[in-house]
Amino acid sequence: MPSLTRIAHGPLDDELNEAIYGCARGERASLHRLYEHLAPKMTGVALRMLRRRDLAEEVVHDTFLRIWEKAGSFDAARGKASAWVFTILRRTALNVLRGERRIELVEDYDAIEPISEETDAESLLVALSETSALRRCLDRLEPMRRRAILLAYLRGLTHGELAGRLGVPLGTAKAWIRRSLRTLKDCLA
């Protein structure tokens, strides 16, 4: 796999230019060539920006959709193909970062007052109203899984931080979050 330096300054740029022009002509093989050359590096850049593999992979996918749609606007005289692609990637990742900061209100919303950093997960649960559907569903989770969900979503801990705080392997922390979210979704439905 070529390095970014080679992509930006080497003979591969002609191939990337032609692949983008091929996308503009509707050639799927050209998009595939771009993907083969750039997807691993793009995923790495997106992962550094977003710090979540699922979001990084989604951004790379969306970037390739945008490349396909906007390939006709690419002009090699104005810049390198790799720079054009990574600019689209960066903008797409920034849009995701902005979107992740949005808060969606739900019907059963309980206001939770800001709580100090020292407050533990169970205190966070107590802050929810006794009659809240979310509280009832959280009470159904096993204590460690409930703690993981509360720390992840009310404290903003990453999977890695959860694993460290709870003393479990990273894969276990991820599985707890995934399964607990599925259980909560079913319970709230």
Automatic annotation (TrEMBL):
Q: Where is the RNA polymerase sigma-70 region domain?
A: 34-102
- Taxonomic path: Bacteria, Pseudomonadati, Pseudomonadota, Alphaproteobacteria, Hyphomicrobiales
What's this protein's name?
Sigma-70 family RNA polymerase sigma factor
* Superkingdom: Bacteria
Q: Name one Pfam family in it.
A: Sigma70_r2
Q: Which NCBIfam families does the record cross-reference, listed alphabetically?
A: sigma70-ECF
Please provide the record's keywords in A-Z order.
Sigma factor, Transcription, Transcription regulation
What family is this protein classified in? Belongs to the sigma-70 factor family. ECF subfamily.
InterPro entries given in the database record: RNA_pol_sigma-70-like, RNA_pol_sigma-70_dom, RNA_pol_sigma70_r2, RNA_pol_sigma70_r4_t2, RNA_pol_sigma_r2, RNA_pol_sigma_r3/r4-like, WH-like_DNA-bd_sf
The RNA polymerase sigma factor 70 region 4 type domain is annotated at: 133-184
Task: Work out whether the entry's keyword set contains Iron.
Answer: no
